Please model this.
Amino acid sequence: MSSVDPGAGAGASAGEGAGAEPRSEADAPAGRVLVVDDDPTVSEVVAGYLHRAGFTVETAADGPEALARAQRARPDLVVLDLMLPGWDGFEVCRRLRAAGPVPVIMLTARGDEDDRIAGLEQGADDYVTKPFSPRELVLRVASVLRRSRAASAGPAGAAAGRERRLTGAGLALDPATHRATKDGAELQLTLREFDLLAHFLRHPGRAHGREELMREVWGWDFGDLSTVTVHVRRLRAKVEDDPGRPRLIRTVWGVGYRFDPSGADADARTDADAGTGADGRGGSGEVA
Model:
């Protein structure tokens, strides 16, 4: 069972988060968020912070309740705990996505990277590892929604300043249509994977640190750096001929990653080889 640090939110107490006055839908243009967690304290704190940020928020304690609420009023984004009674977060995410596209941010207390990857494979757009800062979660919700809306806008949304098509190493990305291909075959990329690959294609041959990628691709100045590691691993699985020996997205020892469009056969280290899988934490004021 999860618990809440009384000092959650770097200056705001758990009581403040839970007691924030809900705003009406007219006052909350940011969007509708469904928070799914069986810990009522976590739900109240997260909902309080989201309310104060301008979101309309509903909560659910398990999978069936979450699906019922999503069917009554489709959310713009779902914050979904992995450890739920009955259906786990993986199953809930799968069923939500089967009903229609919706961005999902998973909350997980598990440290196993395979669990995080499994969540991304089920369609989650991002994950947050407990304990976490409620304010950081609000920033991530806003970031995922912003990218989701930009992607769904398609060509019309890109009318002002349409970005050119990005190509390299048999890969082609069209930011306007949000379509990616490898050697002519379409790639099924999540929003974050698409943005990450686009960043690599814009800067071929350049080494990128994880902090830089989190800032430039995710739009965050802080957070769990293993988010980057997991997304790179997932992206490699989709663009590399042999993900266990990557030739396009290289691990740069002590730095991060480099996109090599030549794909030259060289000593390609993986994250495990380089010892770069350590987590970065968000500091004090965390929800556990």
Summary: The longest strand covers residues 32-36. The CA atoms of residues 77 and 145 lie 7 Å apart.
